[in-house]
Specification:
With 230 residues, the protein is an alpha/beta fold. It has one domain (2-229): Class I glutamine amidotransferase (GATase) domain (Rossmann fold). The protein has 6 helices and 9 strands. Strand 7 (150-155) and strand 8 form a beta hairpin. Helix 2 packs across helix 3. It is globular and about 45 Å long. The protein starts with a strand and ends with a helix.
Length: 230
């Protein structure tokens, strides 16, 4: 299996997806856009089985500050058109939405910390989230669903938490991949985001979560990945 990862900042990596990839002896390559704006050519997509777009603190609308975003959206759109499996996490989900012509814009409220999502689809043709599960969030923007997308999950503050396009494209607004280490990286680099809000938890509450909460995310993350490459 060949997997390419679009990484936007050093502190938002694969997290618990690394173990899933190791188990499958995947060949993993990276575009580390925080180090270099170089992205694969569209022709290179034909060699890939899975494209993973990770999170980051920038907006998909920040093309003036990050010119590579325009090329990245074109790459994501081309991967979808070619039927390659695509997973988008947080910013990555917003990239999928934008690449398909949907609007990405500031949410009415930030959502940071451990909050409940609810699965919204029981169609056999899409990935099914539990009725209720606590997951990790860190976002201040949201998006409209792309045309023909199936809505998969919502939360109290954000309607569009997950969606699926066809069989092989899933966007997650939240972070199933998070580990204690990656969560600490977000807190270290983005603590200024923790302004007062109904859905913004303080740093000490975020840090206090026990290991069982992280462990509970792994089967759900692995289930999404298994679904995409089945």
């Amino acid at each position: 299996m060949k997997v390419h990862v679009l990484q936007h900042v050093s502190f938002e990596g694969l997290g618990n997806m690394e173990a899933w990839l190791r188990e499958r002896e995947a060949q993993v390559s990276f575009s580390r856009l925080h180090e270099s704006p170089l992205l694969p050519d569209v022709a290179e997509l034909d060699d890939m089985d899975l494209l993973v777009a990770l999170g980051g603190p920038m907006s998909v609308n920040d093309e003036a500050a990050f010119p590579w975003l325009a090329q990245e959206k074109r790459l994501v759109a081309a991967a979808i058109e070619r039927g390659i499996a695509v997973l988008g996490v947080c910013l990555g989900a917003q990239l999928i939405a934008a690449a398909q012509g949907a609007r990405v814009y500031p949410a009415s409220e930030k959502e940071i910390g451990w909050h409940t999502i609810s699965g919204t689809s029981r169609l056999a043709s899409v990935f099914q989230f539990p009725d209720r599960v606590d997951v990790f969030h860190w976002h201040g923007e949201t998006f409209d669903l792309p045309a023909n997308a199936i809505h998969l999950a919502r939360s109290a503050s954000c309607m569009n938490q997950a969606f699926q396009l066809g069989k092989r494209v899933i966007g997650l607004q939240f972070h199933l991949e998070v580990t204690r280490q990656s969560m600490a990286g977000m807190l270290d680099h983005c603590v200024a985001d923790l302004t007062a809000g109904r859905y913004v938890q303080p740093a000490d509450r975020i840090r206090a979560v026990d290991e069982q909460r992280y462990a509970a995310l792994e089967p759900l993350m692995y289930g999404v990945l298994d679904w995409l490459v089945a």
